[in-house]
Amino acid sequence: MKWHSKTLSEHHEVLQYVQDNLTVKQKVVCAKFNIKQSTLSKLIFNKENAIDASLSLTSSSSAKSLCICKIAVVDNALLLWFKEKRSDNLSISGEMLLAKVNDYASKLIDSDCKPFSMAWFS
Fold first, then answer.
1. Which among 108, 43, 49 has a CA at the least distance from the CA of 77?
2. Which residues does the chain have with pLDDT short of 70?
């Protein structure tokens, strides 16, 4: 059996099936959706995040993972700043975003906060 990464929409489909068929054994669900039992267990354990993520995406989305910002207040502040700058028709580089996220992190969380790196974008 060849394994491949499932999209968030597919994760939602699996969770919906599990919820609608509570008496079906996990082994049967795994065979039906071609997933490992450990994957199913992780999906069930993190079902709120997976459902929220799949509902926030369009049905045609092929996203396979969800990056959840650990520091939501910084994420929200950066998004507001970004929208404000884009509404002024300003272009924003990666370096500008990185500088701003580090600025917000030091102001909103801790002045000794470890700086974000370019890996933060991915």
1. 108
2. 1-6, 48-71, 110-114, 120-122
Query: Which residues does 95 contact at the CB level (< 8 Å), separation at least 6?
Result: none
Decide: helix, strand or coil at residue 2: coil
| pTM for this prediction | 0.43
Q: Which of 36, 33, 80, 90 is nearest to 100 (CA)?
A: 80
Q: Cβ contacts of residue 86 below 8 Å, gap of 6+?
A: 92
Give the residue from 118, 88, 86 showing the smallest Cα distance to 101: 118
Tens of pLDDT, residues 17-29: 988 998 999 999 9
Q: Are 82 and 92 in contact (CB under 8 A)?
A: yes
* CA angle, 70 then 81 then 105, to 5°: 40
